[in-house]
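quick one, 291 residues, struct below
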Amino acid sequence: MKASRVDKKSGEVESKEGLPIYYDLYTPFSTSGSSLPLIIFIHGFKGFKDWGAFPDACEELSKVGFGVLAMNFSYNGVGKNMMDFDQLDLFEKETLSRDLDDVGTMIEAVKSKEITSDKFALDSDRVGIIGHSRGGHTAVAAAAEYSEIMALVTWSAVANYNDRWSDSMIDDWKTKGFTEIKNSRTNQIMKIGKEVYDDALANAERLMAIKRVEELHIPSMFIAGKDDEAVPFSESEKLYRACPADQKEVRLIENAGHTFNVAHPFEEENFPEAFEEVLDLTEGWFLENLK
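---
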């Protein structure tokens, strides 16, 4: 039975390097205290847990019987106000290794009951993961890295992050030690330090989704928009083809861009049709493979 609303509990967990990993835990509003399978939701590059319709999506997934743990990576550059990139010194150092370690930290926090629900036991043996864009790339690596993860869904995932470094970025790193990008939404100039590049190269066997997906035998779904302007849908197809799981699907959404036609801030009453389709597919996948 679908809950009419959810409870939301916010907090923070200390990362391996002593930084806060901010999170929101969504659970169905109910008086019955049973065990809930858990879904971890991770954002992408220049993203955060409260972007656009992400919180609404987490609520919808929780209503059908999941605990949903949405997290901000400790180095994503968004501080306590949860909405602004006010820690660009951290963003400059956000490596894929640090992101992957943060996922492990959150799983351990659930297992140790540092993250808990007041009404439900969170089942750390039934964990699913969703990642968007670069977060989808990390979600694949996390699903291979952490045995607690039993089901995977990616949204607009990158297949191989080392293919995304341009010649000009690499030249910047070699000559200046950093490169700069512009956040088109906020108009901020954001530095990416050379250690981000070095980490991705040095630890490619651990970090690159196209390599780690070859280890996945869990149910895995790869969703992408056919009109994705940032990450071609062929990236999701590559991940699908390389995944050896018996239960796997790739779904391409018509007339959908990188965020499935959702913008930030999200103030609409209803989800765009493309995002609604993504959410329905995601919900169905976890109901079938995690409940």
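The chain is about 30% helix and 25% strand.
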